[in-house]
Amino acid sequence: MPQIQYTVQIATPVERVWAFVEHLPNWAPLMVGYQKVVEVNDRQSIWTLKGDVGMLTREVDLQADITVWEPLKRVEFTLTGLTEKLSGSGSFTLEPVTGDDAGESPAAAAPTAPAPRRKRRRLREAFARFQARMMRRMMKRAEGADESVRAAAATIASAAADRGGEGSRLTFELHVQPGGPMAPMLELLMAPMLEPAVSDLTTGIRAALEAG
């Protein structure tokens, strides 16, 4: 089963990050292949995604069910394919960070990581920030729905400045398991897609929070 974990540090207090993340429309459009999401209730949502590998060359509907909800700390969920044989699980984990490390990505700061790898991650994070800005502009032009997100981001940024450098560490983990007779081949194809999908979403959330 392909499994990816990615962590970023955000120059925003845990309370503000949680207020942003717990509201699905704030960050759902940052997911790679995002088409739409329907909130069934506060524990269940239906996602429509589209990609370019195997079963994901067409739109796929996934049901996400929240199984663990610990405010300000952790959310865990399961995934069930509605239009394809697909299952999985994932989580968002939050923890406070104080001092000089606030706002710095552990992945970029790790001294043991090779320089080329760090450079690729910095470039990917820069692209994610650019992508987040462009997506917000597109959403504003299309529906005007971006105003609440922009206002929330401005409030968050202001609060972070007032809190004297207090920040957060956000970790996103995702497991995906394709099913059916083509499952082994699809696993091989999907594995290299998951890392950029997870890292782009996580850094996109950070970019949105720090955009103000």
Can you offer a commentary on this structure?
This protein has 212 residues and is an alpha+beta fold. 42% of the residues lie in helices and 31% in strands. The chain is built from six helices and seven strands; from the N terminus they run βααβββββαααβα. It has helices at residues 14-21, 24-27, 106-109, 115-143, 147-162, 183-210, and strands at 3-10, 34-41, 44-49, 60-70, 74-81, 86-97, 167-178. The chain has a seven-stranded antiparallel sheet with strand order 1-7-6-5-4-3-2, with helices on one face. The longest helix has 29 residues, at 115-143. Residues 102-115 and 153-164 have low confidence and may be disordered.
Main sheet characteristics: 7 strands, antiparallel
**Number of DSSP-assigned strands:** 7
Percent of residues in helical segments? Answer: 40-55%
Trace the largest sheet across and list its strands: 1-7-6-5-4-3-2
Chain-wise SSE layout:
Layout (H helix, E strand, L loop, with lengths): L2 E8 L3 H8 L2 H4 L6 E8 L2 E6 L10 E11 L3 E8 L4 E12 L8 H4 L5 H29 L3 H16 L4 E12 L4 H28 L2
Write a compact overview of the structure shown.
The protein contains six helices and seven strands; from the N terminus they run βααβββββαααβα. The protein has 212 residues and is α+β, with helices and mostly antiparallel strands. Mean pLDDT is 74; it is low at 102-115 and 153-164.
